[in-house]
Write a structure and sequence with these properties.
Length: 171
């Protein structure tokens, strides 16, 4: 499994009948970011439709959570969709094309026109790309060559060459 960076945000608040915007910040999105977002709210209702969830304007849904009934008393963690979970809605979404490389904040909109719920917490997780220098042996070169006499005022140039077999550039 790839390394992951996980960002946790807590904000227990009552939300009633109108859009609520959350602005998680303090993360750094990697190149080609795919975001896993897990959100827990209390008091989602399966029978009340019209609610939605978006990240940076991109509406989020999946097979367990339709676009117009995201907060529907379900739990979709662990690869299955459990319906009829009383008083809790806990869902994980794979969010593509909503976060750009280098982003440090996001706008998450919860729209709940026909019901009320309590936002509890939100987790954002990215695959964390790393440089990888393990399979490379550094090549060294010095001018003048090792063992030479260096006189006062002369300069020694030393170069180390290594390769990066990882996912991100290193400056």
């Amino acid at each position: 499994l790839p390394e992951r960076r996980v960002y946790y945000y807590q904000g227990f608040e009552l939300n009633e009948g109108r859009p609520r915007n959350l602005f998680p910040e303090g993360f750094l999105a990697p190149p080609d970011p795919t975001l896993d977002m897990t959100i827990m709210v209390l008091e989602g209702d399966e029978g009340i439709t019209g609610d939605s969830l978006s990240v940076n304007g991109r509406q989020i849904s999946d097979a367990c959570n339709p676009r117009t009934n995201v907060f529907n008393s379900t739990v979709n963690i662990g690869g299955e969709c459990r319906r009829g979970v009383t008083g809790v809605d806990l869902d994980r979404f794979s969010v593509e094309n909503a976060i750009r490389a280098g982003d440090e904040e996001a706008e998450i909109e919860i729209d709940i026109p026909g019901e009320q719920l309590f936002t509890n917490w939100l987790i954002l997780a990215f695959d964390h790309m790393l440089p990888d220098f393990q399979r490379f042996k550094p090549e060294k070169e010095a001018v003048p060559r090792s063992g030479s006499i260096v006189r006062p005022g002369e300069v020694i140039s030393y170069r180390i060459t290594i390769g990066n077999d990882g996912d991100v550039a290193v400056a």
